[in-house]
Write a structure and sequence with these properties.
Strand 6 and strand 7 form a beta hairpin. This protein is elongated. The longest helix has 4 residues. It is built from one helix and 14 strands, in the order ββββαββββββββββ. The chain is mostly beta strands and about 200 residues long. The strands form four sheets. It has an eight-stranded antiparallel sheet with strand order 1-6-7-8-9-10-11-14, with no helix packed on it. A two-stranded antiparallel ribbon has the order 2-5. A two-stranded antiparallel ribbon has the order 3-4. Helix content is about 0%, strand content about 50%.
Length: about 200
């Protein structure tokens, strides 16, 4: 929606997607003649077991405003409606997969036209995943809150073709907890990313 040439609004909604996974254990190692390794760990090995892991509904809104012919600012807010996704706790695991609140992302960016063919951009994004306790995060891919900053260049090669490049860094917020074996587990990471792309307009 564009009430004027300088101002634009956008709104986007994705409905919840219901997903059910069926698992079957074909083989397992035995720690004794009658006990398998998964049994020892307390993992349910029943055939055709169903797990519910739905995708939450997503509501997003954005706005951009052209301050002058050279400067445009943009902002967006995305809500992940996790509380309505009906996540199920998996009893056999030490974490609670259902302990997820609603998450959100908030971003703001600036686009500056250096020349008629060259633009430079700056942006910031804050991400809150909705998983508050470290013990309830996925061990292989912990849902850490994060601050992201980035910058980019866009070069207009022709009226229809743009060359883009970007550089950014994600600062994840470290968390830790003590597991069932009285061990301290700490989740921490940082990511630097580089992007290169081409944009082509057919019309």
């Amino acid at each position: 929606f564009s009430p004027s040439d300088a101002l634009n609004f956008g709104l986007h909604y994705d409905t919840k997607v219901n997903l059910a996974y069926n698992t079957t254990v074909k083989k397992d190692f035995k720690v004794s003649p009658s006990v398998t390794l998964l049994d020892k760990l307390g993992v349910n090995t029943d055939e055709d077991e169903e797990r519910i892991r739905n995708l939450p509904a997503v509501l997003a809104a954005g706005v951009s405003y052209k301050i002058n012919p050279k400067v445009r600012i943009e902002s967006n807010l995305t809500l992940y409606l996790n509380s309505g996704a009906d996540f199920e706790e998996i009893i056999e695991t030490p974490r609670d997969e259902s302990a997820v609140d609603n998450g959100y992302e908030f971003g703001i960016g600036v686009d500056y036209a250096v020349t008629d063919t060259l633009n430079i951009t700056f942006g910031y994004l804050y991400t809150a995943t909705g998983v508050e306790k470290a013990k309830d995060m996925t061990p292989e891919l912990p849902e850490l809150n994060a601050n992201t900053i980035g910058t980019g260049l866009k070069y207009k090669m022709t009226d229809n073709l743009n060359l883009t490049c970007s550089l950014g860094h994600v600062f994840y917020q470290d968390v830790s907890f003590v597991n069932m074996f009285e061990q301290t587990i700490k989740y921490e990471k940082d990511i630097t990313f580089v992007g290169l792309g081409l944009e082509y307009k057919f019309f």
